[in-house]
Amino acid sequence: MGMVTNAFVIDVREVSFMITIKEIAQMLGMSTTTVSNVIHGKTKEVSQATIEKVEAALEEYNYIPNISARNLAQNESKIIGVAMRSRKDKYDDNALKDPFTGELIGGIEKALRHSGYYMMIYISEDVEELVQHISLWNADGLLLLGILGEEWRKIKERYKKPTVFIDSYFDKEIKDLVNVGLQDYQGTYELTKYLISCGHRKIAFMADNCVGVDSERFKGFCQALNEAGIIFDPKKDFLYHRPSRAERKQSYDEICNHCNDYTAVVCVSDYYAVSLINELEARGISVPDDISVAGFDDNYLSQKHRPAVTTVHQDPELKGELAVKQLIKMIKGKRIKEHSIMLPAEVMVRDSVKNLNK
Amino acid sequence: MGMVTNAFVIDVREVSFMITIKEIAQMLGMSTTTVSNVIHGKTKEVSQATIEKVEAALEEYNYIPNISARNLAQNESKIIGVAMRSRKDKYDDNALKDPFTGELIGGIEKALRHSGYYMMIYISEDVEELVQHISLWNADGLLLLGILGEEWRKIKERYKKPTVFIDSYFDKEIKDLVNVGLQDYQGTYELTKYLISCGHRKIAFMADNCVGVDSERFKGFCQALNEAGIIFDPKKDFLYHRPSRAERKQSYDEICNHCNDYTAVVCVSDYYAVSLINELEARGISVPDDISVAGFDDNYLSQKHRPAVTTVHQDPELKGELAVKQLIKMIKGKRIKEHSIMLPAEVMVRDSVKNLNK
DNA sequence: CTGAAAGCGCTAACAT
DNA sequence: ATGTTAGCGCTTTCAG
After folding, report:
1. Chain A within 8 Å of B250 (Cβ-Cβ)?
2. Closest Cα to residue A223, out of A268, A188, A270, A197?
3. Which nucleotide is nearest to B34 (CA to C1')?
4. Cα within 13 Å of Cα(A216), Cβ side
5. Judgement on whether residues A276 and A243 belong to the same structural domain of the protein
6. What is the pLDDT of residue B12?
7. Which of A50, A277, A335, B266 has its CA 20 to 30 A from that of B151?
8. Are the beta carbons of B94 and A113 separated by less than 8 Å?
9. Within the 67-96 window of chain B, which residues sit less than 8 Å (CB to CB) from chain A?
10. How large is the average pLDDT for residues B16-26?
């Protein structure tokens, strides 16, 4: 009978490991309001003594707020949703396998973390499904990757909070739309001009689709050709690559067979450029001696490959950071000055393109 | 006066865009329980007519549950936390820049998505901070990357739910600990034996630390040397690389100057191997003619580089998927058969190591 | 300076 | 087969 348990003394260290405001208030003999006020630094109307007592208890019992409760009460979540329209056939459904995406999401994650937000990634081929997940978590803001105009409507219909697009292109310049992108058009335009200046006239374009970003890159490519008076046959000269594991080999067989007709191929990404070079070399075709290949992105694939790949530089990490910056501005209710940021794209001349003039 | 507003008719489509169970119940003239039951498929005791009415309303008003409320009521979150002890100096604090990590996290994301869970990433240099974030969200389970023994204690103290480690090594074989890792030791052991068989005797090891995974790889390396009677001087022959942007150049200067003393360098990752090769070549030292270099990981860096890099293969995506599988088993209360999965590591012989016997 | 109480949206035990 | 109700942990208004 030595020990007497006092029902009013709650020592949570031994009961459960997650203490609540109510419990702390009870222990300290005060109201939850006061505790809550101290937690939130609303201490204008709290006595110094109380503040210290509460803070000590918070510390001692290792108080961690229950964020679900907080979200419910405040109707906000501190979550930023990152939604990606994906293609299952690409990178075997592993979204971060693509070095571009990896670096971009990494940049977003870093920026979000430094601003006190949490990141939740939603990936789907289906926009409906994306919308479901976004709404479910009541994210405070949204980052949208690889979204097209029509898809955007569906999302906007149901998600009303701040939204920033990354790498999107829309038909009409919609006024209040915030996008962070790249000078894709100019990138391939300059790159292609460079190829032409090296004496290339038979140039193919390789991609796995022709919408959004890739479409812009294709347009820039075509423009350079046009200006040089070179005729491009979209049926023949657009090398369509099917990236799914099952079709990959056949796809490269077709493309490589086709390559005799060209002196150069512009690829829509470094990944494809490097892959193509390897496939070509495996078939005894040497780059740049037999054929030239250029890429886009300037990530370590093109940088560290030998021959180093001529490509267009971009900084995905910066893209992500800027997008986050814009989004947080919007969440805080500040005005956005630049609705459309287009990061510069710069041609990086390296060794995978041969100068035919020499 | 034409329109009469009936206070009991709530048409949420025009009021707010997030309908609640209560509102649906009100409109349909039934209780929230019934609606909730239909939502959760507990329809054993609900009439067909009611079910249909509810489902129609759910559909029409586009009901999306408020997950905070659900989490609060059920004390679960459908969130899986992925916590990483990071180093700010590595990859400029962009965790996903490392192709290994990118692919691993991508694999985790994919597996989680396919099992109906949401992923939240917590990254910090500071374990205390990691624990804070983990507790905050009340994650249903935890995946721990790059965590050491001492750090694990701190986490376990506060987080009691299912936890799976990825690539961790612990001093004592703690019985109930679930880990998914790789045969790191065997990997470098076999790799180094291969180098020795090629006639190399002066071999350095390059890494940015010597704990956890890297320590195991180092041990395997040493073992192979030992067995061949080669003496390794940890002071001199362990090439310590400082990866921060500021120190990178100087670090490579030192290492490259040092390289004359060796015929081969074993690097702890493909990234470092490829970087080293480029740095060497920039200084006029040719691989593999002047010196041989080997890597670890077998990602596209080693595969697509020229010369293609001799390395040790692993499958990070699979690692992630297996870890998720284990974790979900634990969450569902099933027994775990294999507490420690060590994926096989296989030497990939390519062109960056010279055979000195010929 | 402090406290009582309502309410955020949902679940589940317990009626009926 | 359906409804009532308490409660999850926190915030916030309003009263003292």
Report:
1. no
2. A188
3. D2
4. 19
5. yes
6. 36
7. B266
8. no
9. 67-69, 71-72, 77, 91-96
10. 83
| A323 exposure class (CB count in 10 Å sphere: 0-12, 13-18, 19+) | buried
For the cut 70, the answer to whether the pLDDT of residue B31 exceeds it is yes
Give the C-alpha separation, B69 to B162, whole Å.
23
**Residues A204, A238 share a domain:** yes
Give the domain CATH number at B128: 3.40.50.2300
In a domain, B353, yes or no: no
For the residues A143-159, what does the mean pLDDT come to? 89
Identify whether B336 is part of a domain. yes
Residue at token pair 């035919």: A356
What Cα–Cα distance (Å) separates residue B293 from each residue in A106, B229, B232, B268?
29, 21, 17, 11
Query: Could you tell me the two tokens for B312?
Result: 């040790």
Our CA angle for B85, B87, B91, nearest 5°, is: 120
Residue (of A273, A304, A103, A297) closest to B273 by Cα position:
A304
Give B61 CA → D13 C1' in Å: 32
Whether B74 is covered by a domain: the verdict is no
- Predicted pLDDT at B264: 97
Whether B182 and B167 have beta carbons less than 8 Å apart is answered as yes
CB spacing of A94 vs B77 below 8 angstroms = no
Q: Are residues B98 and B211 in the same domain?
A: no
Quick check: B135 and B127 in contact, CB under 8 A?
A: no
pLDDT in tens, B192-234: 999 999 999 999 999 999 999 999 999 999 999 999 999 999 9
HSE value, Cβ hemisphere, 13 Å, CA-based, for B28 = 25
Distances (CA, A) of B257 to A157, B207, B278: 61, 16, 14
**Residues A248, A273 within the same domain:** yes
Tokens of A14: 């031994």
The count of structural domains within chain B is: 3
Pairing of strands A346-348, A311-313: antiparallel
Residue B321 and residue B308 in one domain: no
> Any idea what the Cα angle at residue B174 is, between residues B168 and B175, rounded to 5°?
120
Chain A residues touching residue B304 (CB < 8 angstroms): 274-275, 278, 301, 305
Structure tokens at A99: 């070095």
- The amino acid that residue B59 corresponds to is E
Q: Please check whether residues B249 and B230 belong to one and the same domain.
A: yes
Chain B residue with the nearest C-alpha to that of A287: B306
Cβ(B82)–Cβ(A121) below 8 Å: no
Span A287-337, pLDDT tens digits: 999 999 999 999 989 998 888 999 999 999 999 999 999 999 999 989 898
Q: What is the phi/psi pair of residue A246, to 5°?
A: -65, -35
Q: Which residue is nearest to nucleotide D8 (CA to C1')?
A: B73
DSSP H/E element including B221? helix B212-227
Task: Tell me, yes or no, whether B354 lies in a domain.
Answer: no
A97 in Cβ contact with A135 (< 8 Å) = no
- Residues of the domain holding B227: 184-314
Q: At what angle are helices A149-158 and A127-137 packed, to 10 degrees?
A: 30
Q: Which residues contact A200 (CB under 8 A, 6 or more apart)?
A: A263, A264, A292, A353, A356
Give me the residue label for tokens 């490269």.
Answer: A252
- Distance, in Å, from the CA atom of B280 to the CA atom of B264, rounded to the nearest integer, reads 12
CA angle, corner B305, sides to A91 and B190, nearest 5? 95
Q: Give the full edge-to-edge strand order of the sheet including B203-207.
A: B238-240, B203-207, B264-267, B292-294
Q: Is A243 on the interface with B (CB under 8 A)?
A: no
Separation between the CA of B141 and the C1’ of D7 (whole angstroms) = 25
